[in-house]
Design brief:
Helices cover 32% and strands 16% of the residues. By secondary structure, the protein is α+β, with helices and mostly antiparallel strands. The relative contact order is 0.17.
């Protein structure tokens, strides 16, 4: 594929590959703008369902205008049937990669990341987009001096997103009642049950799982297999974050536990409501200093080298732009 042109982009080098395709660094022929190009394998490009899910990522992302959503430049199918998406080329690393390196975040850094995630989610939800696969692998951290803490959060992989505005459904035909869609460690109980009606509060549950992991260094529910994890999301109450993390504020713990409520009706009503609560927590004097937790300053982590991914990372073309080894 190196040297080949897809649309207006010439592929220059491979960033990585996965089971269904590869990601390349490319340059626009006229604008000279660098981009990341996701390409489906030829055999996968013949699968109509795979192409629909692949292009759904582009449709969902372009429906949202927000600095925290990865920008899509173009998409198409080449003459030989190869499907591709051209998108913003990011420098940095995934939240999952940083978690692996640091173990956990201090409370200040965790809340700062959560605030940027929820701001992007609020924009997506206003556009009628439910992500449905929010997880650390799909959160990218980009060094940016203009962003809070010097880190810009970008949400990736809207491949299984659902368009709910005006009754539209971009995933029609891709899933059915009883199908489990998402990543088990971060799936809401309603997703684990395979319910067809999934709304924005599923993303808020996933945010609760992420915030729990940032502070505690582990996900809320663990198990020997996927079935154990799914059953726990449905039936088991989450452990106390304060009992696991040591020193975090009661208000932060209360917010996490509300996000992790089994019933969507008991969770915060919207991403905007979560953002408001995060602001109130940040504005209040902390019950304990972030340094007391012993967690490293996650937002002050060294900038990752390379383009688009941290050193040693592998690329999942149908998932996050970069995922850990």
């Amino acid at each position: 594929m190196i040297g080949r042109t897809l649309g207006s982009y010439t592929l220059e080098r491979e960033l990585g590959r996965g089971g269904m395709g590869a990601v390349y660094v490319a340059t626009h022929a006229l604008l000279r703008r660098a981009a990341a190009i996701k390409v489906l394998r030829p055999e996968t490009s013949r699968d109509r369902t795979a192409i629909e899910r692949f292009f759904n990522e582009a449709r969902a992302a372009t429906a949202v205008k927000h600095a925290g959503i990865v920008e899509i430049y173009d998409l198409g199918v080449a003459e030989d049937g190869t499907a591709y998406i051209a998108m913003e080329l990011l420098e940095g690393e995934t939240l999952a990669a940083r978690l692996r390196r640091l173990g956990r975040f201090d409370e200040h850094a965790a809340l700062a990341v959560a605030r940027q995630i929820v701001d992007a989610l609020a924009a997506a939800h206003r556009a009628g987009i439910v992500h449905r696969d929010l997880k650390p692998d799909n959160v990218f951290l980009v060094p940016d001096a203009a962003a809070p803490g010097g880190t810009r959060v970008k949400l990736l992989d809207f491949g299984i997103a659902k368009l709910v505005a005006d009754g539209a459904d971009a995933s029609a035909g891709l899933t059915a009642t009883g199908a489990v869609v998402g990543t088990p460690y971060y799936m809401s109980p309603e997703q684990c049950r395979g319910l067809s009606q999934i709304d924005a509060r599923a993303d808020l549950y996933a945010l609760g799982c992420i915030l729990f992991e940032l502070l505690c260094g582990r996900v809320p529910f663990q198990g020997a297999g996927t079935g154990d994890v799914i059953a726990a999301h449905i039936h088991v109450e989450p452990p106390s974050p304060r009992a696991l993390a040591g020193v975090i504020s009661p208000r932060t713990e209360a917010l996490i536990l509300r996000l992790l409520e089994k019933s969507p009706e008991l969770r915060p009503a919207s991403a905007a409501a979560v953002a408001a609560e995060l602001t109130r927590i940040a504005d209040d004097p902390p019950d304990a200093g972030a340094d007391a937790s012993g967690a490293p300053d996650a937002l002050a982590a060294p900038r990752a080298s390379g383009v688009g991914a941290a050193p040693g990372a592998r690329l999942d073309p149908l998932g996050a732009t970069a995922v850990g080894p």
